[in-house]
Structures are given as C-alpha cells and as structure tokens.
Amino acid sequence: MSLISHPKVQLSYRLLLAIGGGFCLSILATAAVPGILALSGADKAGAFVWLMLLSFVWYSLIILWVISTKRLARTSLILLLLAVGLSLSLVYTAPSADVSNKAEQAG
C-alpha cells in the first residue's frame, strides 16, 4: 500500500483541497470577474459587491464538489487550471500602475 493510496492521506488531501483550494478559487473569481465585466461596460464596483455575495455560494459548491468527487487528481487539475486562468485574467485586466504620471499631469 503506497502512501498516496492510504485513506487518511487521501482524506487529508481532499479536505485541504476543498477548504484551501475552494477559498483561493472563490477569492480569485471575486477579484478577476469584475475586471472582465468592466471590459464590457459594467460597473466594476457593483459587480464586485455582487461577486462577493456569490463567492459564498461558489465556495460552498466547490467544497461539496471536491468532497463528493471520485477522481481527486482530475478535480485537482481542474481547480489548478481554473486558478491559473483567473490569475491571468486578473493580471491582464488590472489597471496600469502609472500613478505618478497622472499626479504630475493633474498638478
């Protein structure tokens, strides 16, 4: 019996993935989706507030999904790919950090 197939290790990994991965994914979605919606003309602040409310639902659904799945490796890969995609969208939709030029132009 290998260490990975040990039931206690699988349960620990499943709980860690459900709690930690679900939290990270829901926070990334809450931060990234308003930027994506702002590209289509939506109010970024309003979208952020609604997505903060929806993050509790997403977090709960991710926990239920990870705990109930039979293929833990596939679930881990899906959560990882979703996190990478949301991180990239967060990076590419972030406003520019050129605050010094704006302050000099205004003053």
Q: How would you spell out the order of helices and strands?
A: HHHH
Rounded mean pLDDT score: 85
Give the biggest beta sheet.
none
| Percentage of residues in DSSP E strands | under 5%
Total helices: the number is: 4
Q: Outline the low-pLDDT stretches.
A: none
> How many DSSP E strands?
0
Rg computed from alpha carbons, rounded to a whole number of angstroms = 18 Å
End-to-end CA span: 70 Å
Q: Give the CA-based shape.
A: elongated
Judged by helices, strands and strand pairing, the structural class is mainly alpha
Helix content: over 70%
Would you give an account of this structure?
The protein is an all-alpha fold and 107 residues long. It contains 4 helices and no strands. The protein has helices at 7-39, 44-68, 72-92, 99-106. Helix 1 (7-39) packs antiparallel against helix 2 (44-68) and helix 1 (7-39) runs parallel beside helix 3 (72-92). The longest helix is centred in the first third of the chain and has 33 residues, at 7-39. The N and C termini lie far apart (70 Å).
Fold topology:
Layout: H1 7-39, H2 44-68, H3 72-92, H4 99-106
Helix pairs in contact: 1-2, 1-3
Quick recap of the structure?
With 107 residues, this protein is an all-alpha fold. It contains four helices and no strands.
For the structure shown, list the relevant keywords.
single chain, 107 residues, mainly alpha, 0% strand, elongated
